[in-house]
Amino acid sequence: MIDHDDDQLVADYLRRLTAAASALPADRRSELIEEITAHIAEARTAGAADRDDPARVPDILERLGDPAYIVAAAADPFPGGQPASAPPPVPASVRNAVRLMYLGAAVSLITVIVDLATESITKSAMLSALKTGARQSGIALPTGSQFNSGFYATLALVSVLGLIGVGLWIFVARGSGNGRDWARVTGSVLFGLDTLALLIGPPDLGIRGPEATVTRIFVGVVWLIGLTAVMCLWRSDSSAFFKARRSP
To answer: What is the mean pLDDT of residues 44-67?
Structure first.
């Protein structure tokens, strides 16, 4: 049992704290001592007001801990290393690219729906083109059942590919928004392949295909959305963002 009174106990504790904090910068040392002094005073005041369980100064000081530990925590508030720096904010160019990609997914989905809704128009256009080609080349036309089975198989394939395209839009958008460089590269490659398909692909697909006019318009809109999104992803501020996210 210590014989000193409470004030002497507090004075001794603060003296030990001041000695332990001598290695700290002057402003941090003063701030720390003021904080601990105020904490002790508040705890003593609150304890004196609690008649049922008055706080004793030895208990208050014990809860505070050894002054050396308090100083060590003040000198190194993140033991084991500095905390990881906050990730860089997403620049406006990347945010715009992500929004455009989600818009591309929506338009692609609408294109699939329109393809299914206008299948009779597409079917008639394909049959007319097939008849014209047969007359010019002199080959026999397929039977009605053969044409129907081939047409609906093609329509199903186009619809599935369209839905896969919707998923790819969303997949690349999420990756780009999280700063994944592979997502930016993947989106650019997919856009390049789509452009090649439109330029040198089969003449009966895309904007040159037999689909309804509204479908061909949607195909062109999707391409423009992809072009704008890729341009946003490769801006200088976007590149700096992806580089920062790639760094450890």
So the answer is: 73
